[in-house]
Design goal:
Length: 525
């Protein structure tokens, strides 16, 4: 804030299920990336307030063929980040395949390929602990009822010290069904402190729940519990899972998320202290803070994860992710600036059809029952980044030289329902400016406004995102920006916030139809 304080959220975009560690004077954070690639974002800070995006730890999701098509709410769930034996380690649960880990000597890598620590359905939110006092290694995880029929439990295991596997079948160490009023315990982070094993884990759902703490003298329990952070009289609904970190000066801090619908899960920083009876107290006596003095750390210049991109040489920044594992030929390198996307057909040869991406409550996720064809939710070659959690204006320039009738490209706001604005080559050879949308249950795209000519095959595309996810779509084809169609309200997926995306498509059933060029992508307050 410029006066020694900060305002929450410190990461005002969808960095879901954050975990944080300190290595020397550096703080690192990772978050869920679900079905997008590259996955496992890596953020860096020196003051816990100003964060930059350093890259990703996961180049491609495994199994690679399964993630060759969009799996919006599947994939990487709730990772844990740890530093042990001179290496960085990230464990995460894929609800359909099991618990994975990758590791690297430092934040810049190289990161290992994903290693399957434990195979199984519904194994989520794993966190390792290397106990320096005993030399033992442990792992705790939660359960997704949609895959396993189990929820509201935390299971503990002994783990191989090298993190490659588990040494037992596991034991339920926290059973939420036995704690009056507690439900959907998940997202555990395990620590050693003051002679206790500590598990910080939320409960009660992401929208209206609370953050709990559990402690025991032995890793396998018995544990006692306490609520250590809840909404109270604040506007921070369901303050949910995150990680604890201690500064060199001995200050304790807790980073957690708040679920904000189409904006996803934004990240808050809370002060943390220890009560007289040895329990953590997070925020202002257990309620989230809005504005608070910064951590006692060296001053840092203002910083935030990058959003803008000029696409030098045809490349793109680390803020961008594909919505499926990428394949060669989706982009082209070149000598100048601008992102060249191939106009590829929406059908993906050999790709699997729909998949059950149910969430923990068993409700169908946004990907269930979706089909290929003109439905952008099922097209893998869309390059996306997070929708900012604040009112903002998004702009990008587009040129459509592709000559095949039906070739189209644009800027999309992608979620359970979506809308896009862009250019399309008509059957008579003209290039048209089009505004189209897809309803949540719709089977076909529909025009949000009548098409109009774009004589030079160029347009400046704009989305004006206001409060509550309400967005206006505009375009300039040489005669100034003009809005078209009604206001569109952004929609999240089940677990993922809405995404901004750039895409290019050839007509269904056709081969590639040339390429389009995007330049000067900008997001402004």
């Amino acid at each position: 804030m410029g006066d020694g304080t900060y305002r929450n959220p410190v990461l005002n975009a969808d960095f879901s299920d954050p975990d944080v560690i300190r290595v020397g004077d550096d703080y690192y954070l990772t978050a869920s990336s679900f079905g997008r690639a590259p996955g496992l974002p890596l953020l860096h800070s020196r003051d816990l307030v100003n964060w930059t995006l350093a890259g990703h730890a996961l180049e491609r999701l495994e199994p690679a063929e399964h993630f060759s098509v969009p799996r919006h709410d599947s994939g990487v769930w709730a990772p844990s980040l740890r530093h042990h034996d001179g290496r960085l380690w990230i464990f995460w649960g894929d609800p359909d395949f099991g618990i994975y880990q990758v590791n690297a000597p430092d934040i810049s890598g190289p990161w290992t390929r994903p290693h399957l620590v434990k195979e199984g359905k519904g194994l989520i939110d794993p966190c390792p602990l290397w106990d320096e006092e005993t030399g033992e290694a442990y792992l705790v995880h939660a359960w997704a009822r949609s895959r396993s029929g189990i929820k509201n439990r935390l299971t503990g295991h002994r783990m191989r010290p090298d993190g490659t596997g588990l040494l037992d079948d596991g034991k339920v160490i926290v059973d939420g069904d036995g704690i009056p009023g507690w439900f959907t315990i998940e997202g555990p982070k395990v620590y050693r402190h003051d002679g206790w094993f500590w598990i910080l884990a939320p409960a009660g759902s992401v929208e209206t729940g609370w953050q709990g703490a559990f402690r025991a003298r032995d890793f396998f329990g018995p544990y006692e519990e306490r609520i250590v952070l809840e909404q109270g009289g604040t506007e921070v609904n369901g303050p949910h899972q995150g990680g604890w970190v201690r500064t060199p000066a001995g200050e304790d801090w807790f980073l957690h998320f708040q679920s904000r619908g189409a904006y996803g899960r934004v990240v808050h920083l809370q002060p943390m202290r220890w009560s007289a009876d040895g329990w953590p107290v997070i925020g202002a006596d257990g309620a989230p803070v809005g504005v608070h003095p910064k951590p006692d750390l060296p001053p840092q210049p203002p910083a935030a994860p990058a959003t803008d991109d000029d696409f030098p040489g045809g490349g793109f920044g680390s803020q961008w992710q594909w919505i499926a594992n990428p394949r060669e030929g989706w982009t082209a390198e070149h000598a100048g600036c601008g992102l060249q996307l191939a106009c590829s057909p929406p059908e993906e040869p050999g790709a699997e059809g729909g998949t059950d991406v149910s969430g923990e409550g068993g409700e169908p996720g946004a990907g269930a029952g979706l089909r290929y064809g003109d439905d952008l939710r099922r097209v893998p070659h869309i390059l996306t980044q997070r929708l900012p959690g604040r009112p903002a204006t998004v702009e990008v320039d587009l040129q459509l030289p592709a000559e095949a009738p039906g070739a189209r490209a644009g800027l999309v706001l992608l979620g359970d329902a979506y809308r896009w604005v862009g250019l399309e080559r008509a059957a008579d050879g003209r290039v048209l400016l089009v505004h189209r949308f897809m309803e949540e249950t719709g089977a076909h795209e529909r025009d949000a406004a009548p098409p109009r000519p774009a004589p030079d095959g160029r347009a400046r595309l704009r989305i004006e995102a206001g409060d509550d996810g309400r967005c206006r779509f505009l375009a300039d084809t040489g005669d100034g920006f003009r809005a078209a169609g009604p206001v569109f309200t952004a929609r999240p997926w089940k677990w993922v916030g809405a995404l901004l995306g750039l895409f290019a498509l050839a007509p269904p059933g056709e081969g590639r139809a040339g390429a389009v060029t995007f330049t000067r992508f900008r997001i402004r307050d």
